Amino acid sequence: MTYAFNQEDRIRVAQGLVDVAKNFAEKGWFPATSGNLSIKLSGEPLAFGVTASGKDKENLTVHDILVVDGNSKAIEPTTLKPSAETLIHAEVYKRVPEAGACLHVHTLYNNLISDIFFEQGKVRLQGIELIKALNIWEENAAIEIPIVENYADIPKLAAEIGDVLDPRIPAVLIRNHGIYAWGADVFAAKRHVQAFEWMFNYLFLKLSYQRGATVPVELAAL
Ligand SMILES: [Zn+2]
After folding, report:
1. Which residues pair with 103 in a beta bridge?
2. Closest Cα partner for 65 from 45, 41, 43, 88?
3. Where does the record place the Class II aldolase/adducin N-terminal domain (predicted)?
4. What is the pLDDT of residues 97-121, one digit of tens each?
5. Domains of the chain with bracketed CATH
6. CA atoms of 12 and 19, how far apart (whole Å)
7. How many CB atoms lie within 10 A of CB 34?
C-alpha cells in the first residue's frame, strides 16, 4: 500500500495532536485518561495519526501517536496500540470525506446532555451565536446533534454513528459517554468541539434555571 504523505506530514500531524490535547487538557476534558484524537494523513488509501491507547492525554507527546489505516491497524511496526475507539475515527473519515480531523472527549456536560435528550435521539440547539462556529450563518439557525446508545461493541457503535451522522452537523453524541466531533482540519475540529461544549453547558444551565434550580456562581460564570 502506497501512502501519499511524508515524514514532515507525520511530524505536523503529531504536533497538531499534541497542541489540541494541551488545549483540551487545560479545560479538564480528559478525565481518567479518557478521550482520543486523530488527524487524517491520507484519504485514498485512508491513513490517520491517532493517540495511542492508555496514554495520558494531559501530558501527550509526539511519541504517543501512531499512524493507522482504514481498519485501525498500525501501518508499521510499533509498540503503541490504537484504542478500540479508533474504529469510530475511521468510520467518520469514511462517511465524511472532507473531514480532516476527529476529536473525542468525555465531559460532564456532553454526558448530561446526551442522557437528558437520549429518548429524542438528538438534541436541538437554536438561536445561539456559537452555532456560527460551525459555519452556519443563517439568523436563528437550528441544529440537531444525533445521540446514539453507548454500545460496548465498538464495531457496532462505529456503524451506528456512521448511520446517524448528518454531514452538515460535525458531531455525534454517545449516551453517557462523550462527543465525537470533526472538521476539515484540526483547527476547525477544535473550534467545533469548543462550540458544542459551550452550548451544552449553556443548555444544561438554562434547563436547570427554568426548572427553578439555583445556578452555582462558579457554573454561571462559565
Ligand atoms: Zn470514549
Report:
1. 37, 181
2. 41
3. 15-204
4. 999 999 999 999 999 999 999 999 9
5. 7-220 (3.40.225.10)
6. 10
7. 16
192 annotated as a binding-site residue? no
- Report the distance separating Cα 216 and Cα 201, nearest Å: 13
Cis omega (within 30 of 0) on the bond before 45?
A: yes
Cβ–Cβ < 8 Å for 145, 126: no
Q: pLDDT, tens digit, for every residue of 149-193? A: 999 999 999 999 999 999 899 999 999 999 999 999 999 999 999
Give the span between the Cα atoms of 49 and 40, in whole angstroms: 6
| 155, 159, 160, 164 alpha-carbon torsion, rounded to 10° | 160
**Cα–ligand 1 centroid distance for 178 (angstroms):** 6
106 is in an annotated binding site: yes
Other C-beta atoms closer than 10 Å to the C-beta of 41 total 21
Buried b / exposed e along 115-143 (16+ C-beta atoms within 10 A): eebbeeebbebeebeebebbeeeeeeeeb
Ligand 1 center from residue 106 Cα (angstroms) = 6
In the structure grid, which three cell numbers stand for residue 160, read together? 451506528
- Span from the CA of 51 to the centroid of ligand 1 (angstroms): 12
Q: Which residues of 154-187 are buried (b: 16+ CB within 10 A; e: fewer)?
A: beebbbbbbeebeeebbbbbbbebbbbbbbbebe
Model confidence pTM above 0.90 = yes
**What distance in Å separates the CA atoms of residue 170 and residue 160, rounded to the nearest whole number?**
15
What separation in Å is there between the alpha carbon of 66 and the centre of ligand 1? 18
